[in-house]
Structure formats: structure tokens, C-alpha cells
Amino acid sequence: QKEVEQDPGPLSVPEGAIVSLNCTYSNSAFQYFMWYRQYSRKGPELLMYTYSSGNKEDGRFTAQVDKSSKYISLFIRDSQPSDSATYLCAMSLTGGTSYGKLTFGQGTILTVHP
Amino acid sequence: DAGVIQSPRHEVTEMGQEVTLRCKPISGHNSLFWYRQTMMRGLELLIYFNNNVPIDDSGMPEDRFSAKMPNASFSTLKIQPSEPRDSAVYFCASPGITGNTIYFGEGSWLTVV
Predict the structure, then answer these.
(1) How far is residue B25's CA from residue B2's CA, in Å, rounded to a whole number?
(2) A interface mutation test: which of B35, B89, B101 has the most A CBs within 10 A?
């Protein structure tokens, strides 16, 4: 079993839909949770960053962390064709110098069609 | 800030050849991370440096892989000899302004034939 599980999709939605992306994890020691967006043939781009449990909102994007369930989510409201990309969840154990030691999910391929 | 800069962007080489990938991290930080992305295994950490010193190289697949960070503004990842199974995208990442997460370069797309 992988430490971080993410449904690879693909997920196809119409423009304007609400998108829900999810990851589960097995290591309860994870403290930092991130979502990256990766366009085709590009590097991962940091989208959202949260520490421990709770919600964080940034524009059309909302990240949720439920540590008790070992479950994180990313919601995209009013989805746009430009949101079409692969979305990767990532987690790390601690801060300090190891905060960049990330464990990634497999990524979910999202297509938003006009 | 130009972000993380990697070179070459694309490399096609023959099995057995030496491959050197280069990275210039975001200035002002002293940590650097090398990741590899494949369809089968996704994104995996190979090695990371702090203050130019390798801290954790447990992700380096085998002795054919080596990495150096001679100064705070430059790092290399070398594969010698290369094999077809090394074909992947290699990413370099470094901390950003907030210093509590990392930002990736555009990657080096390696094909070993």
C-alpha cells in the first residue's frame, strides 16, 4: 500500500462545475499538506499549502485537511478550461530542513471542457 | 526572481553514456531537492541538500547516480552509465520566499535509448 493514495482519474467536467479532488494517506505523522498543479510538459506549480487540520481558501480554490480521517481535499469552484491539468497532492512530516521532503500522490488528471 | 532553472530541458542519449543535469536554485536559500517523475512511480525524492551538504540520499536508485552542490547557486545530478530505465523527467526544487515549501523547475526530460 502506498503512503499516499490519489485517484488518477481521469476526471472530465463541464466548465463552471465544482471539482473535488481527494487524497488519503496512511502516515499520521504528516503535518504539512500541499496541492500542486502540473500542466503538460511543465513542472509542478504550488497551488495550496496548509499546516495540520483545517480549511484554507484562495480565490476559487479551497483546501481541506482532516487529520483524524487522514484525508485531504481540494475544491475548485467555477472550474475553467484553463484548470485542465494534473493535480498532485503532497505531504511532508516536519518543518526545518526536511519540509521539502515530500511524498506525492499519483496525481489526478482533470479536463474542464467548454 | 527567475525561479529554479534547469538544463538541459531535453536530453536524448545512448545507453552507457554519462548524463549530467544541472540546476540553479532560487537565490537566497540553502536547500535544494532533486526529484524524478515517471509514469509508473510518480514523483519521488532522490536527494536533498542543506547548506550544500547532502542530507538524505536514500532515494538515489543506485551507485550510477550521484549529485553534488558545490555552492549555493548550483547543483548537478549525474548518471553514469545511463540505462533505458533511467528515462524520466528530473526536477530540481528549492524553497521560495516563505521558506516552508518548495518550488519546482521546469524539469529535464531524459530519454536513454
Answers:
(1) 9
(2) B101
CB neighbours of B48 closer than 8 A, spacing ≥ 6? A97, A98, A100, A101, B31, B32, B33, B34, B54, B55, B56
Q: Does A101 touch chain B (CB under 8 A)?
A: yes
* Lowest-pLDDT choice from A52-61, A97-106, B44-53, B78-87: A97-106
**Cα pseudo-dihedral B84, B85, B87, B92, rounded to 10:** -140
Instruction: Please judge whether A99 and B105 are an interchain contact, meaning their C-beta atoms are less than 8 angstroms apart.
Output: no
Tens digits of residue pLDDT in B56-88: 999 998 899 999 999 989 999 999 999 999 999
What does the pLDDT read at residue B109? 97
